[in-house]
Amino acid sequence: MSSPQSVALALPVTDEALAERLRSRMALVEDALAGHVRGRTAYVSEAASHLLAAGGKRFRPLLVLLAAEAGPRPDAPEVLTAACVVEITHLGSLYHDDVMDEAALRRGADSANSRYDNLVAILTGDFLFARSSELTAELGADAVRIQAQTFTRLVEGQILETVKPGPGEDPLAHYLEVVAGKTGSLIATSARYGARFSGAGPEIEEALAAYGEIVGAAFQLSDDILDIASESDESGKTPGTDLREGVPTLPVLMAQASSDPADARLLELLGAPLVDDDLHAEALDLLRKHPAMDQARSYVVGEAQRAKALLGVLPEGPVRAALEAFADLVALRTA
């Protein structure tokens, strides 16, 4: 049985009464998740619980619980079920992500494809998606429709990530569509579920879903900035990992849109594989000094402000303050 005192909240909640309620409910979610990922055999149970046991911020289920505070029934059992739905869906996507990325580690532990193999990792992801669908069915036909639409967007985002923009297509617009599908869609649904199953009205539900989509995508975009800007001792990450792997990110795409002749060397470096340590270091240095970094930061700050503006439908209080604080954290985070 999880203890509320052992639960760390991934969202900034300064109101202690609200924080305590969220910790208590998150402890219930943790216990429920452990049961939901069990299969009929020990092998399936072990594989499906591998990434769950590795930890994680549990941001999506926490957002369900926080959004539920906007309704009259925040402790409704459907809210807890919905929190499990979004986290299990997220976990399933991580198994598939690791296969696509050929990742060796996830959350500091062996990735499922490393521990088992690609086939088991893919099928375990499928198992988790199936389990999340079973739980969604308990929430009614409307929830099944929302979940199906969310899953469609999530998978389409994953597919689009593997293909380059078509002729005449804006690479930045293509990338933002990928981020909205892969990351924004499920976070939007997390906020929507919390509002809906706690009995909040349609206006609040739609506003929180829109907020979740914007903040979710902005969180990924702030990761892009940190990949370039952070020092390893600050963030715990190796700077320029995405850059080395040729993964398009917000600052890189904004730099590549430059037509300034002074950027010729940077564009040359960004147009080729950066496997050489010296070339990678040079590209990282040039990119850190490029106006694209401030442009990317301004974009994320603008998105956070756009998300906060949607919260006007909520009364002033600790719930709205926590949601506003999270948008600010996304805009200004350093780790």
Automatic annotation (TrEMBL):
Residue runs in coiled coils: none
Gene3D superfamilies the UniProt entry points to: Farnesyl Diphosphate Synthase
Source organism superkingdom: Bacteria
UniProt keywords, alphabetically: Magnesium, Metal-binding, Transferase
A Pfam short name: polyprenyl_synt
Cofactor: Mg(2+)
Annotated PROSITE patterns: POLYPRENYL_SYNTHASE_2 (PS00444)
Entry's family note: Belongs to the FPP/GGPP synthase family.
The protein's name in its UniProt record: Polyprenyl synthetase family protein
